[in-house]
Structure prediction request, 277 residues.
Amino acid sequence: MRLAFTKMEGLGNDFMVIDAMQSPVQLNLDAIRRLADRRRGVGFDQLLVIEPAKNRSNVARFRIYNADGGEVEQCGNGARCVGRFLMEAGRTDGRTEFSLETLGGELVADVHDIHNVRVNMGIPILEPAEIPFEAHQRAVSYKLDVNGKHHEIGAVSMGNPHAILDVPDIDIAPVAELGPEIEHHARFPKRTNVGFAQWLDRGRMRLRVFERGTGETLACGTGACAAVVWGRLSGWLDERVEVALAGGQLVISWQGEGQPVWMSGPANRVYDGHMNT
Prediction:
């Protein structure tokens, strides 16, 4: 099958975007893994497949697959890229603000500026059973035993699960060692993304994220949102926070419980291509 695609990226978090609005695209696990291969395939952190929306009031639905082939619920950097893609493809009926469907829920993309896209990421989920995370009751922080050592974490879902750790310096944080241990921890029944957060002041932080099914990436939009939510709940951050990641900077805003998280940052088109699968 000859497959048309667009390569996009947001802060170095890169995507293969497939437009399946007019014609369905079916890819099995092995095909996705082959496409994700950075030597023999296209190479990406996530594959984004854009499909017709189930709800007619929404512009489109997009499905998200990690490099290991597993389908996941949400992707913040991917949402910005999909927003720009649909705007440039003329699929938004002239609207610069529109709703998108994902497995993790609906998002609102604001594409007044295609180079700096804003996304309403929805209201964060904090109840352990809904994250999902195994805990007796909701708390701001939880003790997590990893190989006999206790770590204090935050647990937040932005449509996908996140564990967040407070570290003094992300440059020396044990991301490669601790990331996969927490990703597969038994208390996260659907696995989890793992954020390593360094708080600079009330409006600035640094972050590294070990993404579920992918490994460490240059940036993670939902990870930045989750980290800001935990930082706000812990009393460390103000409403607007600049989050510095290896790939660049996102701006995250959250007024507090019951309110949606807004994320803004770049979304870039790298190239268009075709590939035989």
